[in-house]
Automatic annotation (TrEMBL):
One of its GO terms (biological process) is chitin catabolic process. It comes from Schizopora paradoxa. Gene3D superfamilies: Glycosidases. Its EC number is 3.2.1.14. This is chitinase.
Length: 447
């Protein structure tokens, strides 16, 4: 727990036209509806470049590395493969395993992360040898993933000192059982970490997904990249394409009421058996979903090599989404800020408001201005030292605080700081989300 009285950080509050505040520790914001997730690793086009090549511009937001395709290989360790960039055969393995040593990719990964992109390890794939025999094996595997790829420690770190931002489940075979145990165990690590981690899944469009349906109903996901291709319900079949099924799941069944649904699309005509549509059609789908569904989070493309070489299909869809992009709260949570998957929110788990901030008050025109770290937090001439002070600020401004990340564990502002929430949005009493203006570029946890 954060002890505010020991803070040396100084923030200055200053008036402006802005009635709300946005703090972010990275460029990435899971609550926007214009994020682009692009799979990298399987060299779908045959011209795959190294990872950092695709991070040169602002086009990609989330990059699942595809794939960790064997859960329990030789020596009981997983196997990863990134085609022409890193593989067991070309790059050497950790002793006694067939797990490729891709630690030369650490800098590439960090380059992408430093540009605000989220880089995750994707488990599975179409040819994956995956699945669990029982609950304890699933939990142990979560520990392995945590130690080898995320914030844990292990002699085996396939990406060296790079710490990935989370896990994607692209499970397309094996038994659907025990993935809930896997994700929940993984969350037990990530929820206690200072870094923000993301868990995503890539089900196919027929609902419910045969492989991921169970875990989607059982665990908290931040985003779901629905594969609207290679199926009757793909983008190429407008009569069958149905985003609303996934929207309804997100609103009514997902343990994380803020889960974002992405439209997954092939990046080129050859990227998938069927489902590819020209860019104008994809833009139409995305902009329609953006306008219609609060659960829409953006577009997912398979894969980077295809999309990049297809006349920058990736950039074209990102640009059109960004034109109308904004932060959106899901309807379930917009009126409920419900704890995602257990745990308490700021005010007992049901209210969207910070304690005491519901009653209408003078319309605030005050906003926080980021000051260099190492100074104190000031507001209206008074110091803000405790979370109660911050609650008072919120009350006086009659803003509704929407802690859009990790809301299930937010109990106080101290909690927010401790968990390094990546995005904290304040709303005015009319529920209008105010555009982000100020960003905290350094870790809240380092305050
Ligand atoms: C992995 O590769 C790096 C160089 O990329 C090397 O320094 C390291 O020793 C290798 N680790 C093992 C266990 O072979
Ligand atoms: C779980 O499955 C693994 C792999 O088959 C096995 O080694 C282990 O004994 C099982 N554990 C339990 C508790 O059944
Ligand atoms: C998940 O929950 C939804 C809504 O209750 C249900 O329609 C769906 O069948 C469930 N999925 C599985 C795999 O049970
Ligand atoms: C959630 O908050 C309520 C009301 O403050 C409290 O009674 C309950 O014990 C809390 N639950 C957890 C899991 O912290």
């Amino acid at each position: 727990m954060v002890n505010w009285t020991s803070r040396t950080s100084r923030w200055l509050l200053q008036c402006s036209l802005w009635s709300a505040v946005f703090w972010s520790v990275s460029g990435f914001d899971i609550n926007r509806n214009d994020n682009l997730a692009v799979y990298w690793g399987q060299d779908s086009s045959g011209k795959q470049q190294q990872l950092s090549f695709y991070c040169q511009d602002d086009v990609y937001d989330m990059i699942p590395l595809a794939f960790l395709y064997v859960f329990f290989g030789i020596g009981g360790e997983p196997m990863i493969d990134f085609a022409n960039i890193c593989s067991s055969s070309a790059n050497g393995v950790f002793p006694g395993t067939q797990l490729a040593n891709c630690s030369f990719m650490a800098q590439d990964i960090q380059d992408c992360q430093n540009k605000g992109k989220v880089v995750t390890i994707s488990l599975g794939g179409a040819t994956g040898d995956v699945g669990f025999a029982n609950s304890s094996q699933a939990k142990d595997f979560a520990d392995t993933i945590w130690n080898q790829f995320l914030g844990g420690t292990s002699d085996i770190r396939p990406f060296g000192d790079a710490v990935l931002d989370g896990v994607d489940l692209d499970i397309e075979g094996g038994l659907p059982t025990f993935y809930g145990d896997f994700v929940n165990q993984l969350r037990s690590h990530t929820d206690n970490a200072k870094k923000q981690y993301y868990v995503t899944a890539a089900p196919q469009c027929p609902f419910p997904d045969a492989n991921l349906g169970q875990v989607l109903n059982a665990s908290r996901f931040d985003a779901v990249y629905v594969q609207f291709y290679n199926n009757y319900c793909g983008l190429n079949a407008p009569d069958q394409f149905d985003f609303s099924v996934w929207d309804e799941w997100a609103r009514t069944a997902s343990p994380n009421p803020d889960v974002k649904i992405f439209i997954g699309a092939p990046g080129s005509a050859t990227a998938a058996g069927q489902g590819f549509v020209d860019i104008a059609q994809l833009q139409q789908y995305a902009m329609s979903a953006q306008a219609t569904y609060d659960t829409f989070g953006g577009v997912m493309l398979w894969d980077a090599s295809d999309a990049y070489d297809n006349n920058r299909y990736d950039k074209a869809i990102k640009t059109s989404m960004s034109a109308n992009g904004r932060e959106v709260s899901n309807p379930t949570s917009g009126s409920g800020n419900g704890g995602s998957g257990g745990g308490n929110t700021t005010s007992g788990g049901t209210s969207p408001t910070f304690p005491g901030s519901t009653s209408p008050g003078p319309s605030g025109s005050t906003c926080l201005v980021q000051q260099p770290l190492g100074e104190e937090l000031l507001w209206s001439g008074g110091q803000i030292r405790t979370s109660a002070d911050i609650r008072a600020l919120f009350t006086s401004q009659s803003v509704r605080m929407m802690a859009r990340q990790s809301r299930d564990v937010l109990k106080s502002f101290g909690e927010i700081a401790r968990r390094r929430v990546s995005s904290l949005v304040l709303r005015d009493s009319t529920s209008t989300i105010v555009r982000p203006k100020y960003k905290l570029h350094r870790r809240v946890a380092s305050l």
